[in-house]
Amino acid sequence: SKEIGRNSFQLYKPAMNARSLERMAIENKLKQALKNNEFSLYYQPKIDSFTHQIVGAEALLRWHDSELGFISPANFIPLAEELGLIVDIDIWVINAVCKQIQQWQNKGIFDRRISANVSALHFTQGNLAQSVENALNIWQVDGRLLEIEITESSFIRSLEDAKKVLKALKQLGVSLSLDDFGTGYSALSYLARLPIDTLKIDASFVAKVPDEYGNSQIVKAIAAMAHSLELNLVAEGVEQAHQLAFLQELDCHAIQGYFFSKPLSVEQFELFCEAHRPA
Ligand code: C2E
Ligand code: CA
Ligand code: CA
Ligand code: CA
């Protein structure tokens, strides 16, 4: 009836307003975040499952707003993509990673490869290879010390266009890693056609090994495929010893996850490197 309609309207409207106001506030703050220097990078070690030494690291973006506190990239990256901010953010990340590579190399703290995540939109909205080349030049970094993590959605629109970008990155010496592997919907044929170096087994699969049979078989199949295509393999989201043991069995050398370390601030990462230096 009208009565109920009016009541539910009154109950619902303020909540809607609050939510859209909150979203607008986040949008406006995100638009200012780069300029206000509110982004930072955390670094998660990639560990050799057999020797337990650091073989690399992944840079993960953090946004701290003075009023909102820490906002998760899982929330603000999709928003940044919607608002057309992602290419600028990716460029900031690539430069910040290159700067950090240079600093750690000069100080003798870390000289392994560091990966940066880039949005699939960077393949259509910007010039990814040019952004990377510029950053390598500005910070005087050897391309072999940089890795770019992409997802399958980067080449769904045009495999040929993506291939050009990836080839240009390879020419700079940069490594290419396919993130969230196994969660996309594209045909696997692209794996043979694109110059990809590494598969990252998605955390959603890792979470369910070895207990869930079907899931474990998928991880086995991914590992077998990586080995036969001579691709490197990284498992993400490894939290438990029995997951690590299962992955070792499959000859998966590189491990990322809370079992060894959460993503670390620059200072924490330096301490971690100190503690894990080869004897
Ligand atoms: P991703 O690239 O798949 O990154 C892995 C996520 O898993 C990270 O979340 C990491 O902190 C988390 N993680 C690592 N080990 C474990 C574990 O053992 N257990 C659990 N439960 N989680 C673990 P984070 O940092 O919140 O990032 C979320 C996503 O946001 C990333 O997923 C990536 O898609 C995106 N992202 C993060 N940084 C950037 C960036 O600089 N640029 C772009 N374009 N996207 C980014
Ligand atoms: Ca990643
Ligand atoms: Ca993932
Ligand atoms: Ca991802």
Descriptive account of the structure:
The chain has about 280 residues and is of the alpha/beta class. The protein has helices at about 1-35, 75-80, 85-105, 120-125, 130-140, 160-170, 190-195, 205, 215-230, 240-250, 265-275; strands spanning about 40-50, 55-65, 70, 115, 145-150, 175-180, 200, 230-235, 255. It has an eight-stranded mixed β-barrel with strand order 1-2-4-5-6-7-8-9, surrounded by four helices. Helix 3 runs parallel beside helix 5 and helix 5 (about 130-140) packs parallel to helix 6. It is globular and about 50 Å long. The model is unreliable at about 1-5 (pLDDT under 50). Bound molecules: ligand C2E and calcium ion (CA) (3 copies).
Strand content of the residues, in percent? Answer: 15-25%
| Strand order in the sheet with the most strands | 1-2-4-5-6-7-8-9
Based on CA atoms alone, the radius of gyration comes out at 21 Å
Helix content: 40-55%
The helix/strand class is: alpha/beta
Low-confidence parts lasting 5 or more residues at pLDDT below 50?
1-5
Categorize the overall geometry. globular
Q: What is the string of helix and strand elements?
A: HEEEHHEHHEHEHEHHEHEH
Primary descriptors:
single chain; 279 residues; alpha/beta; 8-stranded mixed β-barrel; 19% strand; binds ligand C2E; cyclic-guanylate-specific phosphodiesterase
Give a quick precis of the structure.
The chain has helices at residues 2-33, 73-82, 86-106, 122-125, 128-138, 159-171, 190-193, 203-206, 213-228, 241-249, 266-275; strands at residues 39-48, 54-65, 69-71, 113-117, 146-150, 175-181, 198-201, 232-235, 254-255. With 279 residues, it is an alpha/beta fold. The structure holds ligand C2E and calcium ion (3 copies).
